[in-house]
Amino acid sequence: MKNLIEVNEERCIGCSACIRACPSPEANTVKITEDGRIVTQINSDKCIACGECIKACKIRARDYNDDTDKFFKDLKDRKIIVIAHPSIKTAFPGTWQAVLKWFKQNGADGVYDGAYGADICTWGYVRAIEKGDAKNVLSQHCPSVVRYMEIYHPDQVRDLSPVHSPISCEAVYIRDYVKKNYAVAVLSPCPAMSLEFEATGHAEYNITFKRLKEYFRRKKINFNKVIEGDQHYDFDDQVQGALGGIFPYPGGLRYNLTVNMPSVVAINSDGAGTVYKELDEYAELPPHRHPQVFEALSCSGGCGCGCGVGNEDDQTIVDIKSIWREVEIEARGRRKIAMNGTDKQFKVFDDRINPKSLMRNYSGGGKPNAKPSQADIDAAFAKMGKTADQDKKIDCGGCGYASCEMMAEAVAAGRNIPQSCVRCSGGGAVAIAPAAAAAKDNSKALAIAEKVSGFATDLLADIENIYASLHNIDSSNQKSASMSGIVVDILSKVVGFCSSAESIDADNLPLLVSTLEKLQTAVSTLNSNISECAAGSSTIREAMQAVADATTELNAMASDMTAALANN
Fold first, then answer.
1. Distance, CA of 406 to CA of 527 (rounded, Å)
2. For residue 109, what are the CA distances in angstroms to 76, 166, 183, 216, 229?
3. Could you tell me the residue ranges of all domains in the chain?
4. Kind of pairing, strands 342-343 and 183-188?
5. What confidence tens digit (pLDDT) does each residue in 530-546 have?
6. Tell me: the pLDDT tens digits for 39-65?
7. Residue 358, Cα to own-chain centre: how many angstroms?
8. CATH superfamily for domain 452-567
9. Cα three-residue angle 376-378-382, rounded to 5 degrees
10. Can you give the pTM of this predicted structure?
11. CB atoms closer than 10 angstroms to residue 486
12. Distance from C-alpha of 564 to C-alpha of 568, rounded to nearest angstrom
């Protein structure tokens, strides 16, 4: 299994925020380092890559991996098509069209709409339900949900939808019906999508929006805003999705199904704090109590709020909801025009797509670890210094677990250590004060280091501008030197002509005029070259001033960093 989520142990202070946020009870393990620090690691076999720990970690000790760098490296030599996840409209509000145009202009062999794959996915659900192939369906377009079910409820994997996710449906459509069997890259909101691509083979590159934004910032690529609210873009084959565009929003699948099957019993749930508890309850229910469709999304607010989106620009959930509403209104309008008794889009799918090509199988090979025996749990409590019943029910949450009982189970299973218990480590604020102080100092040093890195990046850009200006000046100087020679030569001819001519009559006047016109043109060109040279000099002066300013701030940041580290 890929290590999608990673830990920077040098930053980790063992605060247990990641354990508290993680819906997978076996994904985190705690250890003591050689220098005596408590740090939390990841068991990749149990990690569902939901990214909740990344959101919870305030000191940035956790991050994820994707394929952005590999994609841009391979794009030079491979034919790669790009599928845009529908949530690109919330990740790049107002500029998503410009982003896709950029990919078309910079080597992508096609840009396709993941929302169209969502329309195909809806059609697949409807046909599967109508034929009785999907009596009780658990949605699978959230790869973290799929992974959770495979690990903790392998017997219920049979309920996962037989229809591929919207992105996989689009990939199959492009491969089998558009006949473009190229490598596939997906612009996505979620590191967990790599799990789906690894399982299905439908894509090779998972390019998260957050990493893409970082790439654009490094390359100093800015996009001018397109018309706000305009949801049209000419994808390849000019095929754009309709109501599939709201699939990533909570209840998006349910809404799409009820439009086509008003009587379908479909429910939805979202948010790591809720959905996994409900999935546990779902697994305990007998099949006859399962709804026809249970739509489950790991991220609260849907895919537009995934940890791979990178909503750093003060974008709120209210903004995201407003965008989804605009997408829905626009899509409904286009779908209404396409309606004529029978849904024309579904008619195209019926005529063109074999439903069997959209079917997915699941591994179901996961298995939760056996719960420790009561004797082992009691022994763990003893190691934590908890022998009285009241001590075993403090449930302060400082260890990251909801109860002391769960902490004792983790210690008994070897996933945690007694020292992570606040009571065991000395009790109360005294025990955790050093860690809190370290977190504050580390955060300050990290902020300073990031500012220094930003100044260094700007400094490099200014230096590149200087080199470019120097090149322009050298070129202008060479042109000026050449043109000066021409001017001198023409002036010599004029002087010689005027000295030798006894009088300027009608016969030799045109010759003089022609010579003077050449002189005028040459002087004009010379002036232009001189102006260009002066402009280059001005650019150099401005860039050097910027370098000086950045260097001054860089020195100030370095002084702050030295002072911060000295106080540790």
1. 81
2. 11, 20, 10, 20, 27
3. 68-354, 452-567
4. unpaired
5. 666 656 666 666 666 66
6. 999 999 999 999 999 999 999 999 999
7. 26
8. Helix Hairpins (1.10.287.620)
9. 115
10. 0.75
11. 16
12. 7
